[in-house]
Structures are given as structure tokens and as C-alpha cells.
Amino acid sequence: MQLKYPSAIASFEQIANFAKGKRIALFLDYDGTLSPIVENPDNAFMSDVMRSTVKKVAKYFPTAIISGRSRDKVYEFVGLTELYYAGSHGMDIVGPVRQSTSDDHPNCIESTDTQGNEVNLFQPAREFLPMIDEVFSSLVKSTEEIKGATVENNKFCVSVHYRNVDEDKWKAVWECVEDVIKKYPRLRLTLGRKVLEIRPTINWDKGKALVFLLESLGLSNCDDVLPIYVGDDRTDEDAFKILRERNCGYGILVSKSPKESNAYYSLRDPSEVMEFLKSLVMWKKSSAQ
Ligand SMILES: O=P(O)(O)OC[C@H]1O[C@H](O[C@H]2O[C@H](CO)[C@@H](O)[C@H](O)[C@H]2O)[C@H](O)[C@@H](O)[C@@H]1O
């Protein structure tokens, strides 16, 4: 783990040199990466200029969004059909029909998307759906007296937000969550940015989703592929870690302050993320001539 990472913008030439002769695959987190953190999670809109930048980047590089949100919600925010989407921290993936079948994923089914394209739907926590709905309802009820607390159903996980709760009531939010999840040994708690996230104990996270998508895209060969993952939150560390362990690709942490991370580079905020994505497009265009 390191605490300081060079700026991906200042180090762009270094990244571009390393990417020469390789295919870049891009993986982007949503909240805090493509959209700024805001008080109301329903208002975490992406700007039009960010949307058109992501659209351009996806024209040149396979691009996926990997978010803690439900897949439908993140698609509602982003609205670009040219991307792949993984919601619920990677537990709900719509990707291309898998080219590599090196390992068995029994929960992977062929399906068609809204445009009629053949896709693969992968939902490794499918059996948890009724349990998650139950937990969501219990938490809505148990937190209703805590001013500012909100509960979000992210399909295969539940988020309990305390950003708008007075600090002296944060403990009460924790207690509500602990009280509910102690009845569900097959669920676990993870932490995000002023949010408690309840999710299945299955061995699956954003890092596994990244590997799954690379395999689906036929891009798991590190010799000629450079995966880049950009994210701001603790759950993105699973993806940074995988890239570091495989010595394949770069994690880029979006943060204004130094933090412990497995990322290689950093960007300060979504506006720098946009600048970095624009640089990738310009570099690709100029190197294609
Ligand atoms: O994986 P992500 O796409 O980063 O999603 C992680 C969580 O993001 C959202 O919550 C965060 O952003 C909100 C809007 O800016 C903010 O109000 C909240 O405090 C942050 O934690 C989302 O609402 C959660 O469900 C996601 O799990």
C-alpha cells in the first residue's frame, strides 16, 4: 500500500509510452469519479460534457462502468449504449458474449439487451435477491426516525447513507444496520463515502468483475492489453489490487488527499478524470495518423 501517487495527468506521457502497441481497456467507477459527490444520491448527475467525453473515449477503447449502484440506476445516469455496465459492485454485469471460457461461471446466461444485441448477463448473487429486498425494507423502517438517513436499494446490495445525518446520530445509524445484519450471516458490511453497504458474502467484488469483463472482451492477455481502472472509493481498491498483483495495468485513485491505496496514479476530482479521458482520446487520434 502506498500513500502518494503521481498525477495521471502529469504522468500522461509515461502512461502513453507504456500503452504503445497495447490495447487500452477502460474501467470507470461512477460516483465521485464521473459525477461529483452530492448530498442527495438521486441527484448525482453526470454533466453533458463528461457524457460526451466518455462517449468519445468508448469509440476508441472498450469501456465499462463498474459501480456500487444498481445497474439500471447507473445506466439511467450515464445513458450511453456503447458501454458495458456492472452494477451492485460488479454483482450484476451485462457484457459481451464471452470469448474466453477458461473458467466456469454457472450464473452467466446469454441474453439480449434493449437494442437487441446478444449479451451475457452475469449475476452471481441472484439467490440473494429476496434477502436483499427484505433487508432493504427492514432498514427503511428502522432508520425512519433518524433525520437525514436514507436507504438505497442497489439490487444486490443496500446502501445506508448518513451524509445528511447529524454527527451525533451516526452511531444510531450504525446500530440500526448492525441490528439488521446480525440476523443475516450471509450478508456483510462494507464502508464507502458516508455510506454503509450491505452485501452478500460471496467471493465477488469490483476486482473480480474487472477480470470477468477483460475475459469476456478477449482482453486478458497482459502482454498486449493495458487495463486502466479509475475510481475514488474503498470498494475500488479490489480492482486496483488485482491490477497491481497481476502487474497488469494501472489503477488511478480519484482523491484530493493522499490515502492508502493500491492505485498507481491519482486524479484530484471528476474534472481531472475528464481531462485525463480527453488526453487518451487525443493521444489515440494522433497515434493513429
Ligand atoms: O461505486 P460507485 O459508483 O462509486 O457507488 C458507490 C456509492 O455511490 C453513491 O453514494 C455516494 O455518492 C452519493 C452521491 O454523490 C453521496 O451522496 C454518498 O454520500 C456517497 O456515498 C450511491 O448512492 C451508493 O449507493 C453507492 O454504493
From TrEMBL:
<comment type="pathway">
    <text>Glycan biosynthesis; trehalose biosynthesis.</text>
</comment>
<dbReference type="Pfam" id="PF02358">
    <property type="entry name" value="Trehalose_PPase"/>
</dbReference>
<dbReference type="InterPro" id="IPR006379">
    <property type="entry name" value="HAD-SF_hydro_IIB"/>
</dbReference>
<dbReference type="GO" id="GO:0005992">
    <property type="term" value="P:trehalose biosynthetic process"/>
</dbReference>
<keyword id="KW-0378">Hydrolase</keyword>
<keyword id="KW-0346">Stress response</keyword>
<dbReference type="InterPro" id="IPR036412">
    <property type="entry name" value="HAD-like_sf"/>
</dbReference>
<comment type="function">
    <text>Removes the phosphate from trehalose 6-phosphate to produce free trehalose. Trehalose accumulation in plant may improve abiotic stress tolerance.</text>
</comment>
<dbReference type="InterPro" id="IPR023214">
    <property type="entry name" value="HAD_sf"/>
</dbReference>
<protein>
    <recommendedName>
        <fullName>Trehalose 6-phosphate phosphatase</fullName>
        <ecNumber>3.1.3.12</ecNumber>
    </recommendedName>
</protein>
<dbReference type="GO" id="GO:0004805">
    <property type="term" value="F:trehalose-phosphatase activity"/>
</dbReference>
<dbReference type="InterPro" id="IPR044651">
    <property type="entry name" value="OTSB-like"/>
</dbReference>
<comment type="similarity">
    <text>Belongs to the trehalose phosphatase family.</text>
</comment>
<dbReference type="InterPro" id="IPR003337">
    <property type="entry name" value="Trehalose_PPase"/>
</dbReference>
